[in-house]
Design brief:
Shape: globular
CATH class: Alpha Beta
Strand content: 15-25%
Largest sheet: 8 strands, mixed
Distance between the termini: 38 Å
Oligomer: single chain
Strand order of the largest sheet: 4-3-2-6-5-1-11-12
Number of helices: 10
Radius of gyration: 19 Å
């Protein structure tokens, strides 16, 4: 019998103990996933998730999230949500208290208001200064606390091209948290929450709230979640593809590698990552551009364990 465990992407590293405590108390995987994601959403030092997320080109912070139950294959998701912090919890309520899977924009916000979720100002001083510097063409002047290489944006600022802008900015895009749990009843849950691509076009939604693209789980086979360029995960249905590959007998690592090979076939220089585990509790991960770290704890762990996924090269 597999011991209850939790795993997640970079942003989850410092918060997995919250989820493992829930699992250690015999509670379910959905609770562990939701509470771990909420902790990341509240961390204003993470500029790709929740509070402190970098706004879109219109200066608005908009959040996306999804959650899925591997026992029932029920799922809930929200996208383009403004002024509400814990979108992972709103997504869970969509799953459990509505006939729908995905609510977006004004509708998602109305749903949250109806359920009594508290409004929150999401734009932090850091994110506001980042946005103002972009708007005023002085991003190159920001100090080291903004984690940008001085001067690397200068050419783009002088001759603005949105595709080149995203290409240059992409290495600095961190965030989107994946959290995946396996509980005492051998049930699986997954959750993804994000503020999306830095300075994205207004209305842009990535893979995080798209079931089958950024998030998927099935008790019979396993779970997978993605980070990186969400458009690629949407085009390839990456998360469900990984679970289907595990259904055919591939290990989690093999399944993740296969999905990244698919990405490599359609894009010259992709930036995609996926992490997964199967119904036996085996874990894996793969990336198109690095040796991806992911983080793991089971109920006997004394500390968070760093595991490495493979780098799939052309």
């Amino acid at each position: 019998m597999v011991k209850p465990f939790i795993m997640g992407s970079d942003s989850a590293k410092n918060f997995l103990e919250i989820g493992i405590k829930i699992l250690s108390e015999g509670k379910n995987a959905l609770d562990a996933v939701e509470q771990t994601c909420k902790a990341v959403e509240s961390n204003q030092d993470d500029h790709g998730v929740g509070l402190g997320g970098i706004p879109n080109l219109a200066g608005e912070v908009t959040l996306d999230a999804s959650i899925m139950c591997g026992r029932t294959l029920n799922a809930g998701a929200v996208a383009h949500v403004r002024d509400y912090l814990h979108v992972i919890s709103i997504a869970r309520r969509v799953m459990e208290e509505s006939p729908h899977v995905l609510l977006v924009g004004d509708g998602a916000e109305l749903f949250a208001e109806h359920l009594g979720f508290e409004k929150t100002k999401l734009l932090t001083p850091y994110a506001e200064e980042f946005y103002n510097a972009f708007k005023e063409k002085r991003l190159h002047e920001l100090g080291p606390e903004f984690d940008l290489d001085k001067g690397y944006l200068r050419a783009d600022e002088q001759d603005y091209d949105i595709n080149k802008w995203f290409e240059r900015l992409e290495p600095h895009m961190r965030g989107t948290v994946d959290v995946m749990a396996f509980d005492i009843n051998q049930n699986i849950a997954t959750g993804v929450t994000t503020s999306g691509t830095y300075l994205k076009l207004p209305g842009r939604v990535g893979d995080s709230p798209i079931i089958g693209a950024g998030n998927y789980c099935d008790n019979r086979y396993g779970a997978a979640c993605c980070t990186g360029t969400g458009e690629l995960a949407i085009r390839n249905g990456s998360a469900r593809a990984v679970v289907v590959y595990m259904k055919t007998g591939m290990s989690p690592t093999e399944a993740c590698e296969e999905s990244m090979k698919e990405i490599q076939e359609i894009v010259e220089k992709p930036s995609m990552n996926v992490i997964a585990f199967n119904s036996l509790g085996e874990t894996g991960g793969a990336s198109t551009h690095r040796e991806i770290p992911y983080y793991y704890m089971n109920i006997d762990s004394q500390r968070v364990e760093t595991r490495k996924g493979s780098w799939v090269k052309k």
